[in-house]
């Protein structure tokens, strides 16, 4: 019988020792690395949670990077906006100053400062963050605002704002310097003042006339073009009697001329002399009234009108606001008169209504929204056939959202819109639309920038689209939608922030426009009207830079951006907490406890020592000892 030798490598004991050695090696690795294993297979059943947690942490890291970049852009934009606020305050303080001393260029110190501030503002609006322009909206690769010099002075092929303003001033003043008004004396005892052309957007518009002149007859304002007349009827007014005429200026402001009959010598400013000859000659009084009225209108035209014209030129050049102007039309009264806001949209002849008028079932569609005519009881987007033109215009304005209400003057309807590109008005009753002064449909607005329509400007009667030959000051994104939505970033799984901005936003554009007008306008230092022009312009500039309730302010944009930052801050706080929790899950799944590992190593070392002892004893076993 043969006895096999003990084969250590194939024995159970040897296998056990090798297993213990492997465990000791693994535990030593765990002790040195702090990890349960160097590969996923050794991590255990909880490794799935760790993998998911690591994925979430990676997402959080990406969100953190996004928020860091967005915060950089917002901080730069906010710095730029704060600079705009400083520029606004500086210009406003200067325009409100009473100092009106003119230099050789016909400007005040405050105007020179404003011209420099305009260049600074343009530079601020062209701020970049990396290769991104902050105030271009979605067109972030495009410089949003043209160079300041080009905007004001133009280029070799395109007119700048200075040219547009000069054209507008000539058109508003007219050839006779009286604001496009024509003054005559039809009879020796009367005076008549008329607008030169019905429906013209230029010059002074006669709004109202009132009189306490004893024995006088006042007619108007009425007719097309609008006019008024005063006939003394051969009777001298009493001392202190007054004639008041109110005018609407191109910028929408109103001014009033008050002329008082006076026996004082010399005749006080703002008065006209009552004839004191013997016998009394009222014709001389009418002549004095005519002269005083001419002087007052000329002064108004060359002071407040010039300033209002500059403001309006700024709006024509910088603003997207425009209008559709209908031709002057009359109502069907017994004595036909120009339509007004009170004129009914339908009615029997004779009455203050249009003909042909609208009937039940007719419709007017404004920018895709339909207004329907009903016999009575109109609600929502309905109109009664007997409603007034003013009611219709209010409905149209509500749909377009215009910031400047539509008007009726001299029988001509003007539909205003803040977005000329979108205005589109049609009707199922084209005859009634013609009665409103719109003989062709769709009714659309002239695209800005607006320029005086013909030469010489002093006799022009229309504004036309000047985009082909005029500098475009804003070249960024100008599509529909909120400027804030032009830049969107996801900062959490279900959270996005909007942080876009555009240089043509109302608050920014209106400030740029006001400063451009104030800094560009100049007058003749020797003109008798220079002081009045600058004073009127300064007042309007101060008002333009003082925001009214409901108007967007620079601070409103800053508030929007601050809200985006607060949203990111809250998201970051949540993500920090989530990251800590996820890391804890990963650590629990993958980390090895040093104390537990050390304990296990000690236990294995003891087992290994015992195994080695058994092996040693077995190695000493012989046949003799066995027997």
The structural class is alpha+beta
How far apart are the termini? Answer: 14 Å
Mean pLDDT: 88
The global form is elongated
Q: What is the CATH C level class of the largest domain, in words?
A: Mainly Alpha
Helix content: 40-55%
Count of distinct structural domains: 3
Count the E strands.
21
Largest sheet: 4 strands, antiparallel
CATH superfamily of the largest domain: f41 fragment of flagellin, N-terminal domain
Strand order of the largest sheet: 3-4-7-6
Give the amount of beta strand, in percent.
15-25%
Distinct helical segment count:
13
CATH architecture term of the largest domain: Up-down Bundle
* Rg value: 42 Å
Stretches where pLDDT is under 50 for at least 5 consecutive residues are 1-6
CATH topology of the largest domain: f41 fragment of flagellin, N-terminal domain
Structural write-up:
There is one protein chain. Strands 3-4-7-6 form a four-stranded antiparallel β-sheet. Strands 5-8-9-10 form a four-stranded mixed β-sheet, covered by helices on one side. A four-stranded mixed β-sheet has the order 14-13-12-17, covered by helices on one side. The chain has three domains: 58-145 and 474-573, f41 fragment of flagellin, N-terminal domain, CATH 1.20.1330; 181-318, no CATH class; 322-447, no CATH class. The protein starts with 11 loop residues before the first helix and ends with a helix. It is an alpha+beta fold. It has 13 helices and 21 strands. The protein has helices at residues 12-33, 47-95, 109-125, 148-153, 161-173, 282-318, 389-400, 430-435, 506-520, 530-544, 554-590, 594-619, 623-626, and strands at 128-129, 132-133, 181-184, 190-195, 205-211, 217-222, 227-231, 242-248, 254-262, 271-273, 322-325, 363-366, 369-374, 382-384, 407-409, 412-417, 425-427, 450-452, 463-465, 488-492, 495-498. Helices cover 41% and strands 15% of the residues. Strand 3 (181-184) and strand 4 (190-195) form a beta hairpin.
